[in-house]
Specification:
- The chain has about 120 residues and is mainly beta.
- The strands form 2 sheets. Strands 2, 4, 5, 6, 9, 10 and 11 form a 7-stranded mixed beta sheet that branches.
- It is elongated, with a radius of gyration of 14 Å.
C-alpha cells in the first residue's frame, strides 16, 4: 500500500511564509508527477502547483512568483514553499502523486491534507 503524508501546515500571519512537505511511503516502482492542491470551505479543490519527475514545474496563476514546488527523488518527497501568504489562501492543502506500484500499473494517490490558516 502507498501512502502520502503532508506536514508543515499551521497558522501564519498575512505576508508570512510556510513550507509544506509530503512524503511517499510503501511499495512502488516509480513516482511520476507530483503536485499540491488546496480546497477552501465551500469551494472546489484547485491545482496549486505540479512538478514532473524531471523537475519541470507549473503553477496556478494566482501563486506564480510566490510559491515554489520542489522534489527530492531520493527521499520520495515533494515540498511547497509558500511566501507572501494571503488570508484567502486559507485552505486544506493536499499532496498528490502519480505512482506506478508495479509494472504496467500506475494511479493517482492523495494525502489526507494539512490545514493552512492565514490570519489577517
Amino acid at each position: 500500500q502507498v501512502q502520502l503524508v503532508e506536514s508543515g501546515g499551521g497558522l501564519v500571519q498575512a505576508g508570512g511564509s510556510l513550507r509544506l512537505s509530503c512524503a511517499a511511503s510503501g511499495s512502488f516502482v516509480r513516482i511520476n508527477a507530483m503536485g499540491w492542491y488546496r480546497q477552501a470551505p465551500g469551494k472546489q479543490r484547485e491545482l496549486v502547483a505540479t512538478i514532473t519527475s524531471g523537475g519541470s514545474a507549473n503553477y496556478a496563476d494566482s501563486v506564480k512568483g510566490r510559491f515554489t514546488i520542489s522534489r527530492d527523488n531520493a527521499k520520495n518527497t515533494v515540498s511547497l514553499q509558500m511566501n507572501s501568504l494571503q488570508p484567502e489562501e486559507t485552505a486544506v492543502y493536499y499532496c498528490n502523486a502519480d505512482i506506478a506500484i508495479f509494472h504496467n500499473f500506475r494511479r493517482d494517490y492523495w494525502g489526507p491534507g494539512t490545514q493552512v490558516t492565514v490570519s489577517s
